[in-house]
Amino acid sequence: MQPILQRIFSVKKEEIRLLLLSTGFIFLLFASYAILRPLRDTLGLEGGDTELKWLFLATFVVMCIASLASMWLSTKLKRKNYLNAIYLFFVSNLIALYVAMQSIAPHTEAFIWLCRVFYVWVSVFNLFVISSAWSLLTDVFERDSSRRLFGIISAGASFGSIAGSSLVSIFTISTTSFIFASIVFLCLALWIKWLLIREASTIAKNSNAFLARFQKTIGSSNPFAGFWLILRSKYLLALLAFILLLTSVNTFLYMEQMRIVKELFPTREARAQAFANINLIIQTLSFVFQIFLTAKIVEYFGIKWLLSLLGFVMGVGFIVLSYTHPLFLPLVIAMCFRSVGEYALVKPGREMLFVPLDSDAKYKVKNFLDTAVYRGGDALSAQIESAVLKFGVGAALLVGAALSFLWGFVGLYLAKSYEKTKKA
Question: Is residue 403 pLDDT above 90, yes or no?
Answer without folding.
Answer: yes
